[in-house]
Amino acid sequence: MQVQEASSRGRCEHGALAPELLQLIVQYIAEPTRVFRLLRALPRRVLGPALSSLLALRYTYSACELWPVLHIRFVTPGTIIPLLRDAVPIFQAVQITSPDFLPTIERIVLPSTKIHIALLLPYEDCFRAGLALCERIASLELMLFPTTFPIARVCTFLTYLPDAMERLTLRWSPLMDVRELDMILDAIVHINCRCLRIVSAYDPTTACPTSVVLKLATYIETHPIERLYLEGFQLLCDASRVLCRALHHCPTLQKVHFRGISDVFMTLFVTQPLAGHRFPASLRCIKLFPLQLNDATMALFAQVLATSRLTALNLQLVRLSQDSWQLLWATLAQLRTLSRLHLDGIQFKDLLEWNSMVVGLHALPQLQRLRLDVGLTLDGGAVSLVNPVEASLFHALATTQGSLTYLALCYVSDLELLAAALTHMLHLEELVVDFVSDTAQVTTLLRLLQASPALSRVAFHEHAFSMLDLVSLFQQLVASNVRWVYLDLFASETDVDPSREYHEVLAIAEHLCQDVPQ
Fold first, then answer.
1. Same topology for domains 202-338 and 349-517, yes or no?
2. Is the pTM of this model over 0.90?
């Protein structure tokens, strides 16, 4: 009898699942579109208040903003807040960028819910609400700018944050005095966050004070930081040495991303290990932007790379000589742990530098993710990729990059050649193509999408296709393996009424997506 009663409590009328059990099932669906497709297919009476409210919120927020993490970017008046209040308890994590909703969230989330906050502070209301939520905050992003709200008040707020917070991001307004960062670092000394991001506005005329750099270096050396992002700091030579020494002595550091920091720091970071301060054995990913090395410092960097255990390397706006490019590619070939390589904003000066890249790719068959935003300068002017230059690159991809699961390319002029290369990439799951030639046809695009059997996610940026072509594209995509498509389009000159035809395409796409098999 007790078993029968328990079983009946787990069901609704007509044998339907109880809302609580349905909520549990939904938690195991990661893809947002599949969650809402399921909710739309079920009778409203079986959803319960939480899932019904989640479905109703779909008219205000995108699917990605609602699942698997609820991202409250804005709150409109009326019925939105009651819907959010009913839906919030089913989420394990909530991300808030709307200060209007911050005072409300404290009253409706479960104690176990992780809260991620990204706000423009300081505001007094946000400050009070944030204090009430402090013990639940898993990550915090603050944009600090000069107001009548004292920086000491912000520091007080930071001292209440939990010790084991996952991520802390501080965005520093160019109008702020960088010396106030000293007070901020004192306020967060108790936080053992795994990810620390400090973003400032680079000012070449104002160097970051050595006292601030010393305090940051001490924090890095004494805390279990795994991921560090620094942007926009002008560091002098002594300060750069102090910070580099701390980075090389951090035993937990796995990923570093340095953007817009003075050249002296960048050079010291990639060469100082030879002075006895080696990269930590835990370091797996380096992202540097920009990076300019002469032949001597490149030779030092090559020695450091060869002894590292990097799995990912991201270099942006790199400026090297022809000999240094050849040395870099030869060094990467020795790095058997490397599985991700991103080159962004690279402009090769001649065919020899271009060919060194092609030869280098032949020696990297273990890559799983590759992004190439590269161009070639001929006769004093930058040009996009054109045959036969493009052909040599695609041949290298086809013959040696069979393990790729992700490929991103920029300035592609011959989609036919690319499609032919993709037929050899049997494991490719995601393709990103930026700035395709204006002569590209949708029929060619379809051949590209169908070239690799594993391809399921495709993104095309900055392309011009007519709306009629897009209708044809969507219709034929239904029969392919592709389940996720991102199109960033220019209006075509052949469109009579781009706005009207755009909505027609969206309607067709939505209808077709409902028929895509799971």
1. yes
2. no
